[in-house]
Amino acid sequence: MPKTHAETWEWRFDQPPEAVWPALADTSRWNEAAGIPRHAIEEREEDDGAIRYFGSAKIGPLPLRWEEIPVEWVFGTWFRHVRQFLNGPIAVIDATLSLAADGPGTLATYHLAAAPRGPLGHALLSTAFFPACRKNFTGLADGVRDWLEGRRDGPFASKLKSLDAAQRGRLERAVAAVEAGPDGHGLAPRLAEWLATAQEVDQMKLRPLALARTWDADAQATVEMFFAAVDAGLLDQQWDLLCPRCRGAKATAPALDRLPAESHCGACNIDYERDFAKNVELSFRPNAAIRDVPDGEYCLFGPMTTPHIRVQVGVEPGETRAVAATLAAGPYRLRTLQVGDEVEIEHDGRSFPDVVFDGADVRTGGPGAAGEIVFRNDGPRRRTMIVESLAWTADALTAHRATTLQAFRDRFGDEVLRPGDNAAVGRIALMFTDLGGSTAFYERVGDAHAYAVVRDHFELLAATVRTHGGAVVKTIGDAVMAAFPEPAHAVAAALDIQGRVAAFNDGHADDDALVIKVGVHAGPAIAVTLNRRLDYFGSTVNLAARLEGQSHGGDIVVSLAVADDADVATVLDGIAAAREVAQVRGIADPVAFVRLRP
C-alpha cells in the first residue's frame, strides 16, 4: 500500500459559515480558478443499472484518466471529493473542506491527501505538489475573503483571454443595438462586462434569472434584455430538457421544434417526458463571434451545482452511517444517485427519519436523533444516498415562463413546436377578455371611430399584460387570450386592466366608454402550434373562456383554483368578492367561481 501524503490548511473569515459556503463549496469555479483543467466525462452503466463516471483530460503533454467518485456533503457544513486515477504518477486525490462557526466568523479547514503511483509520484508528492497547492489554494481563499469584505466583485478571478479588438468591437455594437431598443433596460453594459470578465464556468450556461439575482436587477427586465441580446447577435439561446431528478440537461436543441418529447438520464437511469413548466429550460451562451466557450466540466458533482441536494453521502453495502445534519422543516425527497425508487416526506424540523436502501428502493426507517441523519445500505453495492429539498427556488428560465413573456413572443414568434406535436404544461394561468356591448358600441359611434377606440383598447391590454409578466397569445375579434406563469400575475393584470379602463372612460365622452369583461383560470394545459403560433389547448383553456362569458363587464370572474391561491389572496386584499355558481356552456356540472368588483 503506497504511503499517503497529506496536508491541512486553515483559513479564518469574519463572516458566518452560510456566507462563506457558497464560494468555498463551488467546486466548479474553484477548480477553474485553481487551474485544474476542463475535462470530459464518460458514463458507464454497470449490470445492475448503477452508473460509474470516468473523467479524462490533458495535463501538459500527459493524458490522464480517472474515476470520478460522487462528491459527498452536508450542505453548509462539509464536502469530500475523491478522484481515483487510472494512470499517471498519482493514484488518488482526496480533498475535504469543513466549515465551523468561530465566534461570529468561520474557521474553514481544507485537508488534502494524495497517494502516489510509483517512485515518480512519491517524489512529486514529497517535493513540489503540496507547496504549490498551499500557495494556490490559500490565494484563492484570500480572494474569497476580499469578495466577502467588498474589496472585489467576485470570489474568483477569470483566467479567460481578454477579448481582441474585433471581438470588443462586435460586443460594443451589439450592446448599442440592445440599448437602442425597448428591452435593454440599461442592463446590456452589465452583460457585456460579464462576458468580458466572468469565469468560463459562468459563460458555458448563462441563466438570466441567476444573473438578475447577482446583479440585484429586475428579473423580467433581465430576461427581456437577454432576448434582445440574442436578436443583436450578442448571445445564442438553446432549449434544455432537464432530468427531473438530477436537473442535468440530457437533451439540448437550438429550437423548440427540434427538442425531443422525452429523454433518458443515464446518471439516474430513468426515462422522462418534457413539461414546459418543470423541466424545459431556455439557457444562453455567448455568440461564438464574441467569445467561443468550449464544452466540458470542471467538476461533475458539487454542492453548488445542485444546491437543492442538502445531503449526499456514500454508504457501503451493509453499512449504517450517521452524519450530523440539521435540516429546516419542509418537503424532501429521499433517493439514491443510482437507479431506484424514491420517497417524499414532510419534515417537521425536528427528528429526521432514517434513510434506508433495501437493495432496490429507498424507504424511511425509524425516527432519528435530533441533529443527525442515519443512512443504512442493505444492498450488495455501495450507494450514494441523497436528501434533496423540494422547496428550492430554481434559477431555470422554464419554457413556460419564457413563452408567457410578451418580449419572447414579439421577438421569437417563430419558436413553435413541430406540427402535430404538443408539450405538457403543469400549470398555466389564462386570462380572456372581451369588449362588452361591442355591437351597440359600433352602431353608436360608427365603424371608423369604433375601430380607433378598439385598437387603443388592444394596445392598453397588451401593455398591461406585458407589465405583469404575461403575453398576449392571440386576439379573436374583440377578445384577447393572454397567458401568465402564475395566477397572481394574471389577477394583478386583470385588476390593472379594469382600473385603466375606468380611467380611460373618465377621460372620454359617454359614447366612447368601454366595458371590458374578464375571466381568469389556472390549471394544466398542453402547448400546441396553431396558426403558426404557440397556443394552448385543454379544459383549462375552455373554462377560462367560459368564465369570461360570466363577466358582466367592469368586474373580473376567477375560478376557485385561482381565488384559493395563496399569492392571489395577497393581491385581492381589500377587493370586494362574491362566490357564485352557474351553469356554463360546454360543461355538464354547474361551475363555482368568484366575482371580483374592483
Task: Write up what this structure looks like.
This protein is α+β, with helices and mostly antiparallel strands. It has four domains: 5-148, Alpha-D-Glucose-1,6-Bisphosphate, Chain A, domain 4 (2-Layer Sandwich); 165-286, no CATH class; 309-389, no CATH class; 416-597, 2-Layer Sandwich (Alpha-Beta Plaits), CATH 3.30.70. Helices cover 30% and strands 35% of the residues. It has 17 helices and 28 strands. The strands form five sheets. Strands 1, 2, 3, 4, 5, 6, 7, 13, 15, 16 and 20 form an eleven-stranded antiparallel beta sheet that branches. Strands 21, 22, 23, 24, 25, 26, 27 and 28 form an eight-stranded mixed beta sheet that branches. The chain has a four-stranded mixed beta sheet with strand order 14-19-17-18, with no helix packed on it. A hairpin with a 4-residue loop joins strand 5 and strand 6. Helix 1 crosses helix 4 (129-148), helix 8 packs across helix 9 and helix 13 (447-467) runs antiparallel to helix 14 (487-506). The model has no long low-confidence stretch (mean pLDDT 92).
